[in-house]
From TrEMBL:
Matching SMART domains: OMPdecase
Species name: Sistotremastrum suecicum HHB10207 ss-3
Keywords on record: Decarboxylase, Lyase, Pyrimidine biosynthesis
UniProt key word Methyltransferase: no
EC number assigned by the record: 4.1.1.23
Domain of life per record: Eukaryota
Family named by the database record: Belongs to the OMP decarboxylase family.
Family matches, as InterPro entries: Aldolase_TIM, OMPdecase, OMPdecase_AS, OMPdeCOase_dom, RibuloseP-bd_barrel
Cross-referenced SUPFAM superfamilies: Ribulose-phoshate binding barrel (SSF51366)
Pathway: Pyrimidine metabolism; UMP biosynthesis via de novo pathway; UMP from orotate: step 2/2
UniProt-annotated binding residues for substrate: 39, 61, 152, 218, 238-239
Identification of the protein by name: Orotidine 5'-phosphate decarboxylase
GO molecular function: orotate phosphoribosyltransferase activity; orotidine-5'-phosphate decarboxylase activity
Amino acid sequence: YDPKSSSYVDRSKRHSNGAAKALLEVMDRKKSNLCVSVDVAQKQSFLTIIDTVGPYVCLIKTHVDIIEDFDDQLLAELKALSERHDFLIFEDRKFADIGNTVKLQYAKGVHKIANWAHIVNAHPVPGPSIVEGLASVGLPLGRGLLLLAEMSTKDNLATGEYTTRAVQMARQRPDFVIGFIAQRRMETIGSHDTSHGEDFLILTPGVGLDVQGDGMGQQYRTPKHVITEAGCDVIIVGRGIYGNGDDVDAIRKQAQRYQADGWKAYLDRLSK
Ligand code: 5BU
């Protein structure tokens, strides 16, 4: 079994986790493997971008702690947009603490992330206890977790044995860990036998069609490189979509462009 040569909809049947299933199904339904990362500081701008790109994405990625005028109304509007445009929500919280602390950070505080984010992510650095802490909150709500197995930045430390250990951690909790933030497929890592049908979702940041970096360590690859060649599943695009100002027509055009490019890269991979 090779997830790289299977369709998103067929793969949805292999996942027991509700968030993983729902994501693969929406990808198939909307013909989109595009996740837009909405990294802006004002609520109005945040909601306008999401309303504009909503029809073209499978997933919206947030950093809700960036927003200066955050309030509960924003969450109500985000939820409404997710229903209107049919996308899931991924809060890129990158939990990284002991089980008890991440449990509190996930469920409580101002943001109450578990109430509205279908998917969150965590650094594997604390070991398996971080997954246990998050699962205690997320599993009863049908949520899914991604582990950060690799990063897109220049000279990052998530390589080699660290990446292997992240994959081993995921294998211990397939009910809750639905995949990885990574730059390539992970099933073959750790000299694992893939014949029993392991399937991870691979979500990949550091995607851009026009520039190679941002002068602050970010490194960009194209959808063709990420989806067709590296075999990842979802392209995460931020400034490539809204980085040239807040003209909604320009933002819509970019979202359509990345959706089309990402989907073509997926079809090319399937026909290989
Ligand atoms: P960009 O504007 O497309 O560069 O935004 C990329 C987003 O993905 C941004 O929100 C980062 O926090 C996030 N990201 C990343 O760029 N690279 C990584 O390795 C990880 C997350 Br993990």
